[in-house]
Design brief:
By secondary structure, this protein is mostly beta strands. The radius of gyration is 18 Å and the shape is globular. It has one domain. 2% of the residues are buried. It has a 4-stranded antiparallel beta sheet, with no helix packed on it. The protein has a 3-stranded antiparallel beta sheet with strand order 8-11-10, with no helix packed on it. Strands 1-2 form a two-stranded antiparallel ribbon.
């Protein structure tokens, strides 16, 4: 995966020529900032658009990183989604999605979120809303990808 030099929020993955009826699986793991939607609701957005997006500086739809990709209305590939949210000692009140139908499994320490249906097309971004029971001033989360790599997220509100 490479990052576009001009547009820092665009990443490019090149897949070599695949023979007909062959398939390729791509797994992407990343860390992103969560949006604070309201006092006690945070939003997690996963962009699923791998086709060109609208770019006003070019007067409309354009391909990222000046590739020769063409815009198409539908594609034969689908996406599978798995997300794990730590319960934070009862701090999470609910998890919902305004973009997709989701299934939520409740475990002792986590919520496991997947799509409710198989073969979900990549026609819109994935949006998860996480409602907190109370707005805490400090949240700390550590994620381990299983390969000795950690990501740390800290959120706090300074006081006097």
């Amino acid at each position: 995966m490479e990052q576009d030099e001009k547009l820092q929020d665009i990443f490019i993955i090149n897949v070599g020529a695949l023979l007909p009826r062959n398939e390729c699986q791509i797994q992407i793991m990343y860390v992103t900032e969560l949006d604070l939607v309201s006092r006690n609701k945070i939003r997690f957005i996963v962009s699923t658009t791998i086709a060109p997006r609208c770019n006003q500086s070019f007067g409309g739809i354009s391909s990222p990183a000046s590739t020769q990709a063409k815009y198409v209305q539908s594609v034969p590939y689908t996406i599978d989604f798995q997300c794990q949210i730590d319960k934070l000692h009862g701090e999470i009140k609910s998890v919902s999605s305004s973009s997709h139908s989701i299934a939520i499994q409740f475990n002792d320490d986590t919520y496991s979120i997947t799509f409710d249906k198989k073969n979900t097309f990549m026609d819109r971004d994935i949006i998860l809303d996480i409602e907190l029971s109370t707005r805490t001033n400090t949240i700390l989360a550590v994620e381990n990808n299983g390969e000795h790599q950690l990501a740390l997220m800290a959120s706090f509100i300074p006081t006097n």
